[in-house]
Automatic annotation (TrEMBL):
Lineage: Eukaryota, Fungi, Dikarya, Ascomycota, Saccharomycotina
Gene3D superfamilies recorded: Aspartate/ornithine carbamoyltransferase
Organism listed in the record: Debaryomyces hansenii (strain ATCC 36239 / CBS 767 / BCRC 21394 / JCM 1990 / NBRC 0083 / IGC 2968)
UniProt similarity note: Belongs to the aspartate/ornithine carbamoyltransferase superfamily. OTCase family.
UniProt-recorded Gene Ontology molecular function terms: amino acid binding; ornithine carbamoyltransferase activity
Enzyme nomenclature, EC number: 2.1.3.3
Keyword terms of this UniProt record: Amino-acid biosynthesis, Arginine biosynthesis, Transferase
Residue ranges constituting the Aspartate/ornithine carbamoyltransferase carbamoyl-P binding domain according to the UniProt record: 26-171
Protein's name in the database: ornithine carbamoyltransferase
Record bears the keyword Amino-acid biosynthesis: yes
Pfam family, one: OTCace_N
GO BP terms: citrulline biosynthetic process; L-arginine biosynthetic process via ornithine
Pathway per the UniProt entry: Amino-acid biosynthesis; L-arginine biosynthesis; L-arginine from L-ornithine and carbamoyl phosphate: step 1/3
NCBIfam families: orni_carb_tr, PRK00779.1
Domain Aspartate/ornithine carbamoyltransferase Asp/Orn-binding: start-end pairs: 177-331
């Protein structure tokens, strides 16, 4: 039999393999890229998973086999408690094996580029939960990955926390529509996503940040557009009392993020008067049904014990809900291949 010329063999092989190329996966980068309906669907899924787990009833075996034999990568540049536990728990729920990849565990940033690392990890896993430093790292991962990238925190966004927080608010009030959320603290990744998610859920948002801190203009523009479309308010103040006025939900976060420890003294001066106390809430004229939230870890300068450990605090329910948010995201982005309304 006559042998085929090498050139023709290469051409035929390239043509044949192209039929097997994967379509570009959908990634969870932030809540701006979600629609109102998609966010509501993720929150609804998280709520359903929580009821299922909390009921104590046995879960159909098919549920635990959806990702059986698959790997879920946890690519973490920053240490974590809630994110790691919830992600590993969610992966195990679907039968997947979670694989933690800390910055000391792999070659990324030492002997290997982001491109090379992403191509390798995504070729062997079903998705990558990435807890990294810069937002650009998330974008680079998304560009080169053949599997969904789940933004588990970067310096710009924290969508998993936002999904968690909307679920927590919905549980506490039985609804989200018509509520008001007050943020007292820094302009950071947590409020960037929480502001968008709250507005998408029918919650007006009032933010209080120190005078010399600017809220991200791109996030602010997106938030203002959503608020206008839904007939809600989105305001930025420099006085905590103005933000707290008639608020149902009062939220803060750390003033000093990981990697900013050297700035502690300056930050403490910058946020003088921003510690959330019972007196601040009372003088700010919060709604009588107010609840307090914090994504943890908490520091005493951010919120007083009489608020953090009060009957109005939702911090530990909020922490647990990270598990169900992770479950919802895995089902939507991995099991259902990015069809969030399925």
């Amino acid at each position: 039999m006559m042998s085929m010329p090498i050139k023709n063999m290469i051409g035929r092989r390239s043509f044949s393999s192209s039929a097997f190329l994967k379509s570009k996966p959908r990634h969870l980068v932030n809540t701006i890229e979600l629609s109102n309906e998609e966010l509501a669907s993720l929150v609804g899924k998280a709520e359903a998973f929580k009821k299922q787990v909390r009921s104590g009833n046995s879960v159909p075996i098919e549920q635990h086999q959806k990702l059986l034999g698959k790997l879920v990568a946890l690519l973490f540049s920053k240490r974590s408690t809630r994110t790691r536990i919830s992600t590993e728990g969610a992966a195990a729920y679907f039968g997947a094996q979670p694989m933690f990849l800390g910055k000391e565990d792999i070659q990324l940033g030492v002997n290997e580029s982001t491109y090379d690392t992403t191509k390798v990890i995504s070729s062997m896993t079903s998705c990558i939960f990435a807890r990294v430093n810069s937002h650009q790292e998330i974008l680079d991962l998304c560009e080169h990955s053949s599997v969904p990238i789940i933004n588990s925190l970067c310096d710009m966004y924290h969508p998993l926390q936002a999904i968690t927080d909307i679920l927590t608010i919905k549980e506490a009030f039985g609804k989200t529509e018509g509520l008001k959320l007050a943020w007292i603290g820094d302009s950071n990744n947590v409020i960037n996503d929480l502001a968008i998610a709250s507005l998408r859920s029918g919650i007006s948002v009032a933010i209080s940040i120190p005078k010399d801190i600017e809220f991200d203009p791109e996030v602010g523009k997106a938030a203002s557009e959503i608020a206008s479309d839904k007939g809600l308010s989105f305001d930025i103040f420099h006085e905590p009392s103005k933000a707290i006025d008639n608020a149902n939900v009062i939220v803060t976060d750390t003033w000093i993020s990981m990697g900013q420890e050297s700035e502690k003294q300056a930050k403490m001066l910058q946020f003088d008067g921003y510690q959330i106390t019972q007196n601040m809430i009372s003088q700010g004229n919060a709604s009588s049904d107010w609840k307090f939230m914090h994504c943890l870890p908490r520091h005493a300068e951010e919120v007083a014990d009489d608020v953090f450990y009060s009957k109005n605090s939702l911090v530990f329910e909020e922490a647990e809900n990270r598990l169900y948010a992770a479950m919802a995201v895995i089902e939507a982005f991995v099991v259902n291949k990015g069809d969030l309304l399925k």
